[in-house]
Amino acid sequence: MATLEVEGIQKSFGGVQAVRGVSFAVEPGEMLALIGPNGAGKSTCFNMLNGQLRPDAGRVRLQGRDITGLKPREVWRLGVGRTFQITATFGSMTVRENVQMALLSHHRRLGQLWRPVARMDAAEADALLARLGMAGQAGRPCGILAYGDLKRVELAIALANQPALLLMDEPTAGMAPQERVSLMALTAGIARERGIAVLFTEHDMDVVFSHADRILVLDRGALIAEGAPQAVRNDPRVREVYLGSGATSGH
Amino acid sequence: MASGLTVIFGVSRIVNFAHGSLYMLGAYLAWTLVTSLPRGHLGFWGGVLGAALAVGVIGLVVEMLLLRRIYRAPELFQLLATFGVVLVVQDLALLTWGAQDLLGPRAPGLRGSVEILGLRFPLYELFLIVVGPVVLGLLLLLFHRTRWGTLVRAATQDREMVGALGVNQRMLFTSVFFLGSVLAGLGGALQLPRESVNLHMDLAIITEAFVVVVVGGLGSLSGAALAALLIGELHAFGILVFPKITLVLVFLVMAVVLVVRPHGLRGKPQPAAHGVAAAEPMIGAAPPALKLAGAVALLLAVALPPFLGDYALTVLTEIAICILFAASLHLIMGPGGMASFGHAAYFGLGAYGAALAATWLGVPMLGGLAMAPVLAGIFGVVFGWFCVRLSGVYSAMLTLAFAQIAWSVAFQWVELTGGDNGILGVWPDGWAAPKLAYYYLALALCLGGTLLLRRVVHAPFGYALRAQRDSALRAEAIGIDAFRIRWWGFTLAAIAAGVAGGLFAYGKGSVFPTYLAIPRSVDALLMVLLGGVQTLSGPIVGAIAYAGLQERLMRLLEYWRLVLGAVIILLVLFFPQGLAGAARFFWERRHGDA
Amino acid sequence: MLKVSGLSAHYGRAHILEEVALEVAAGEVVVLLGRNGAGKSTTMKAIMGLVPPSAGRVEFDGAEITGREPFEIARRGLGYVPEERRIFTELTVLENLEVGRRPAPPGATPWTPARLFELFPSLGRMQDRPGGRMSGGEQQMLTIARTLMGNPRLILLDEPSEGLAPVVVERMAEAIVTLKASGLGILLSEQNLHFARGVSDRATIIEKGRIRWSGTIPALLEAEEVREQYLSV
């Protein structure tokens, strides 16, 4: 069974159709890239999957279960991790505490008023951080971390509830080229090892073509192409609306 | 009708308590001008316009001398500075015009009344009902059809960018402020024939303006206009039909609107703050030196009092109460990231809870002390539900509006609360009657409560509060219900403040409406800000320092508001990062070059 | 036309810029290359007076403008296009342009909305749309158009290709070439070397707030070790 199944989702804002009937599926362990021009509806699509927006029509199913229109925190409880285009972490806490928050929330212990956080779920948090190569930074405050490291912290937070699906909105935006490659290689490794389905948007074509198993191309709210990287790259319509001649992107 | 003021407020988003003072000054100045100018049309209307212009000039001076210097300070400090202006103006008005209400003349030509649907409407009320929408319409045109209006709307969103596009945004805001001040003055002056001029006008109108902005929808001009009309008409008709409960009516309207449309009539969800705010500092375990100092202080607080006189014991009891009060506010301001300008409401409700239980139900002291947090908690749950849906200054505005409503109920519901005369004879039971015994009781409860709050901050709940403050987006994405966390945090703070209020009531033996009035809320704010929002020990230190200072001031000076206001303004001008920030700055400079 | 020398800036006690020096002539495009956080945006903000410089000198058209108010600098003919775009989301496209409008210097043909819609045709199709309801690419065009309404003689263009689809980046490159041909000086900041090499005359590499390398684009393409060390490509 596919991890995520999307069936004909639609959304309009003030009469403008932002997403018009998009359908696709993501398999366990698969890296699926969603690309397209700005304003094509990628973010809207994304936000409908994790519950920030409610689709006007269509269905979203996670492991067979209908999650259409649930709130983000409910979607998260059902096993969807998320990273943001601009990293969102808790700046007043250490790296470890950030991960602990996600673990505590996962174990539904956030209402507790008495036991100090310092003694809760710390070992589990450290194990996750070690997997992401962040063990040495566990005690540092998130507010002073380098951008690339913050992206890793976000990934650790997103993995804390053992998600079936990972949604990554422009995971490598604002990173240096070499950091991009290593972050995506790490993500792909974890996804395959744990059978996590990964859906990501991205503008860096190097990242997309070297890490995606499959690519969806969105234009004006509709899917115009879908398939393996090589086929999508040679698709004349994709070249026209999105890739261009390749002069400014190196392809 | 203060609609103009509200519109400026909604558009420029300059949140400003001083607008209320300008409104009050408009009324007072109009009274002076109208009563000293020759009678007749020229005297009245000339006086009204003259007052409006004079207020505009006063606003200009305030903006250039004060506000302009603090635009870069944190928003909360700006609000605090304008509150300093309110205090100063109140005492200046008291000095100039005295404490009694002043009655103005009727407007010439509009003295009569007409009958509509069996109700008698004074002509002047009808005149105001017409003037309001006309002024609003003109403002809407001004903001949407002129280059000046376009620039103002752009600058409201991003001042710096407007400056980088070659617009002198400083002059622009000064002009907005002038217009807003003129309108505030005009609004005040036009009230002259309707009601007496008094010293409560400033906070009353500010409360109303805040409610209007929240009801209308943040940053929505048309929404603010609509809400101003709605609330204005509600007042105009409400006064004729149900004169006593207009405030409650307004509150109910706001409740209904916010339930149906959480972002106000025409409001949109607030966009996420531009850019990344500076990371809040971490909260860690107290350093050993601080722990030692705390232990020594505690030891002194326990060991010394048997050797002190009654007066010193009273002061110490009050300080203990202040510590819990400040610590409760700190919970929502520090870890919670919400500002409250009406925290005294819960303190006062606690006091009234205890006093009402004692006088009407005749329960013994411990029962009264138990009632205090119950009543405060109930209102914390209700008011909190509204306040925590909004963020930043808008939430702060709403807390202030609720506190003002609670105050006016306590003030006006004479049958239950004794109104201005308060409730007397709330004395502790026999065993706690000696000052020393009561001091130990207060110390135990307050320190216990404060330590409990501290424990909460280190527990998952406290972390969740900080999490939603640091990044609402991320909090929601890991399953944290930010609304509920904030709501319970708010309620917890209300309960703690209620305990402090109950103790205060028994300590004083009486309860007055001033317990829940705005100045007391500002006391709490000052304690927290003085000590520093960043640290857990901050509010404790702040409470001790501030309670001592204020005690002195009130004993020595009749016009303590003037002095306090001036102190606040100076603090904000010279220490825009707060005392704690200033201390850190000096410390870093001393140690940094080494 | 723009001459920066010894420009330094601090944030708290940390140096964020150290003795930055660069020059841009009329009709020339100079690209400031560097990683995220290298100091590209800060350099532009310090030139524009949005970040107070702690030392150094900024000259524009022979007059010193160091540390002046941003609005005064803008009125002298220096335009600033921020990386975050900072569109006025509640204002329409036309209103956004109106905020940027300033009189043209004598002799120059002033920019008008109509002329700008020729340069960015997609904006012309959405004149009354609020800025908040536009896509990233459209917002990027609007923020450039808004700055051009002030009839600047030189613009600071901060990462215009960031987060844009390749095809939109190509259109942006065409617009920059058109503007350059009209005599406008441009200081561009970029991470995307493919984009920068197509539109720029000279390059300056910044890393940790210091200038590490300056030269022409062909020289940069020759210097493989420079690219590897500072740009990791």
UniProtKB/TrEMBL annotation, chain A:
Pfam families: ABC_tran, BCA_ABC_TP_C
Residues in ABC transporter domain copies: 4-245
Keywords associated with the record: ATP-binding, Nucleotide-binding, Transport
Domain of life where this protein originates: Bacteria
UniProt GO MF annotations: ATP binding
Gene3D superfamilies, A to Z: P-loop containing nucleotide triphosphate hydrolases
Protein's UniProt keywords contain Transport: yes
Protein name as catalogued: ABC transporter ATP-binding protein
UniProt organism field: Siccirubricoccus soli
UniProtKB/TrEMBL annotation, chain B:
Residue ranges crossing the lipid bilayer per the database entry: 7-31, 43-67, 79-99, 119-143, 171-190, 210-232, 239-260, 311-332, 344-363, 369-388, 395-414, 437-457, 487-506, 526-547, 559-587
CDD domains in the record: TM_PBP1_LivH_like, TM_PBP1_LivM_like
Compartment(s) where it occurs, according to its Swiss-Prot or TrEMBL record: Cell membrane
The organism's place on the tree of life at top rank: Bacteria
UniProt cross-references to InterPro entries, sorted A to Z: ABC_transp_permease, BCAA_transport_permease, LivM-like
Membrane disposition: Multi-pass membrane protein
Keywords: Amino-acid transport, Cell membrane, Membrane, Transmembrane, Transmembrane helix, Transport
Pfam families per UniProt: BPD_transp_2
Family as reported in the entry's similarity comment: Belongs to the binding-protein-dependent transport system permease family. LivHM subfamily.
Name of the protein in question: ABC transporter permease
From TrEMBL, chain C:
Molecular function per GO: ATP binding
Name of a matching Pfam family: ABC_tran
Keyword presence, Transport: yes
UniProt keyword list: Amino-acid transport, ATP-binding, Nucleotide-binding, Transport
Superkingdom of this protein's organism: Bacteria
Domain ABC transporter positions: 2-233
Protein's UniProt keywords contain ATP-binding: yes
TM region(s), chain numbering: none
SUPFAM superfamilies in UniProt: P-loop containing nucleoside triphosphate hydrolases
Family membership: Belongs to the ABC transporter superfamily.
Name recorded for this polypeptide: ABC transporter ATP-binding protein
